[in-house]
Amino acid sequence: AGAETVKRAVQLDAASRFQESLVCYQEGIDLLLQVVKATTDEAKKHRYRQKISEYMTRAEDIKKHIEKEKQDGKYHKQIRIEENATGFGYEKLFHEYLTEIVSEVWVEDPYIRQVHQASKYSLYNFLRFCEMLVKGPCKVKTIHLLTSYDAGSGRSQQISVLEEIKQSLSKYGITLNIDFSSSIHDREIRFNNGWMIKIGRGLDYFKKPQGHFSIGYCDFDLRPCHETTVDVFHTKHTKKM
Q: Would you say 141 and 177 are in contact if contact means Cβ atoms under 8 Å apart?
């Protein structure tokens, strides 16, 4: 497992996907250290330690490179989610950026509402996103949501659902501030540790499940996605919060 993880790290490194490769290097190093502890052959231990030292050096170099890009305001990572792709649940997509110091989150998405039956899942998607924040490892205290009003008779239900989410979050010590705009167009999510994530389709990039008891209904990692692009920036590269 350790060898496969560092192999993946090297591949991501070669593709200039540095943030992802750093995570894989760190996971791979931890796994290889466990192997060293369990190995009694001194020659093998020596080879493993040499490799671990090489990977640690490269991981440190990548960490410095990422930090410099952040400081220079040049960090930009793009993820392409293909049509019908799976494995892009919110935890997988956001886990790199939800560090323990995250206490405040901004969500701008015009479609956290129920325009018609086919798009009702946007409200559930926002709820699932909030559940991810509750689980941590971040210590979120405030979530700011900026969206647009639903049209016609759907407005009262939209407000009712968002109020229910707000009350539920308050039981976990989290304040949800809700604002509405008739001119909002951009979709972006910002964390107060400096990361900004722009998703072409906003939080609603999952396809409608085939049924309430079909695989992927509960586990978003197993649910097929619509094609979309995810752009990740550090806020020095964009507007200030």
A: no
* CA–CA dist 151, 109 (Å, integer): 15
CA distance 95 to 93: 6
pTM: 0.72
Write down the mean pLDDT value for the chain: 88
Q: Range(s) for CATH 1.20.58.80 in the chain?
A: 1-72
pLDDT digits (tens, 9 = 90+) for 25-79: 999 999 999 988 888 888 888 988 998 999 999 999 998 988 887 777 778 888 8
Check pLDDT > 80 for residue 240: no
Q: Which residues are paired to 80 by β-bridges?
A: 229
Class of domain 1-72: mainly alpha
Phi–psi pair at 181, nearest 5 degrees: -140, 140
Q: Which CATH class is domain 76-234?
A: alpha beta
CA of 42: how far to CAs of 32, 39, 77, in Å? 15, 8, 41
